[in-house]
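Good morning,

Both structures are done.
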Amino acid sequence: GRMLRACHVDRGPDRPGLLVLVAHHLAVDAVSWRLLVPDLAAAYQGRPLSPAGTAWRQWASALRELAGSPVTEAETDHWLDAARPAAEPADPVLDPARDTHARSGQVVLDLDPDTTDALLTWVPGVFRAEINDLLLTAFGLAVADWRRGRGARGTAPVTVDLESHGRHEHLVPGADLTRTTGWFTSMHPVPLHPEIDDPDWAEVWDGGAAAGRALKRVKEQLRAVPRDGVGHGLLRHLNPRTRDRFAALPAPAYGFNYLGRHTGGRGGGAPGGG
């Protein structure tokens, strides 16, 4: 099918036209747009473009070789354990016939400036953590408390399918993806264990020491993920000796994706000149 569509919108003699670009996700991801928009502006202004690095095709070929390497296959047991379902009876059970994209909903939450500043700056600084650590701790605690409210008393982890940009150049010597467009996203399951005892829940929601202990535990669990989690996708999809074992396991009921901090131009576009 078509990977890219371009449309010029003529808004009349008194207003500048618009260039509308629609690209298939196979061709671009969120990081790709941050490369393409400045390049389009530079090309419009007649400025030279920087040279490209490793092509997407080269990267895909390198990953296929990496999938069969001893270092990747050594991670098989780790990823099988991480991917095995360990849900509580209170967890929702997804029905492929009913739970479709067409029936999905969206919840938007805006944080006030003080909370945002704490989330992005001083809390990570105090705990030597990253924003993902904080968000995943909060999510794990929320699910664990939701389970508790429905009578669950088990210790099953909150397994999350963690999505990342996938541009882990250190896995392939000499790779340079700083100016490469394409869909590089990788996903891997992470079992989160906040491990909150019943007497500690009030302290958690008050932001007390129990919340800090949960953050430290989740941070350590995330740091224990080998090689940024890329091995899971390699073993599940690209290694013929292991993919059938992974195909038999269901995907986690929860997913997480943090796109990072970025700003866009007013109206969601980019100026062509200036």
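Second structure follows.
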Amino acid sequence: MHAGWSPQLGALLSSAPPAARRAHGQWALRTGGGGEGVLANVFVLLPPLGKGQGARGKGQEGSGSTGHGRRTPGQGHRHRHGHGGQVFTTFECKYVSSYEARISQDQLKMNTTLDLIQAITVDVWAKVSVGQREAKNGYRNIFSYNVNICSLIGKGKGMGIFQIWVQNILKYSNMPRACPIAEGHYYWRNLRPDRDSIPAFLMTGNFRIDVLFYMRDWSNDMLTNTTVFVDIKMK
């Protein structure tokens, strides 16, 4: 029972396949190279700036990252809006022309859009992992799964936590309820973590959810890679 709970989206990072590390309390984006299969637009969303907060640093990388954070061909500019804390980088892409997400000012929901420029005619898989924050910059992995999303779309409830998550996401979206997925413009409006979609063992705390969507039958080509931070407070 989650009566009195209060979820808050602390930050969202979306990239494919650029890697990121959190350094000095800020997000730093490191590109691993352009080319086919790379997400067209990478958006990093942070909580809105408060009074006295300056702009984020550039070119920082946390411990454990590799490479030198160099710019790559096709990489666009980055900037931050005063409302929504949006930072983005542009890449060449094989499947997507744009991918955008914005966290609301109250940090309780987000709006996301995705423009597919090529139909996805094979099953879409998702690698999902959830970690709980234990230290300032560390998360303990709670569970990780690799699931076939197309096998879950359109099925009824009662199929486990992943079915609940899929149904929760679909009800805010115009995504098709069956595969294949045609090219077109898709959206998720006022997407938020519902109480029923949170496992009972996830109580008060800060959690990191990593979701990598890819096509196993297309040489594991990546579609999107998103990290969402959710702060749950039980009242």
